[in-house]
Amino acid sequence: MVIADTGFWLALANSKDKYHDIASIRLTELSPEPLVTTWPVVTETCYLLGARIGVQAQQLFLSNYIAGAFSLFDLTPSHVPRIIALMKKYANLPMDLADASLVILAEHLGHGRILSTDERDFEAYR
Q: pTM here?
């Protein structure tokens, strides 16, 4: 499984995004390896898709989830103390909930293969 961050989803959805072409290429290269993300990333992605492209982009993104384009990791209350610790540790970046959730997911999977346009932050988290 490959972890997908908000920046990847935004780039994929917006042909005017400077990372659109590389996101499309990476998606093709990884196929059929499954993608996984978290609800905080889905929430952040929907918000930004709506603000930047429109409600139809949000609907298409969610329709792709229903169609099986990616799966969701189930964050539980037991993850919250680790999320808080990560947010404190990386407060200087700062780390938001979506990024913290992806670090939790990476720890669960045992790897840090993350599709993201936010290289600075995820390099620091490694």
A: 0.91
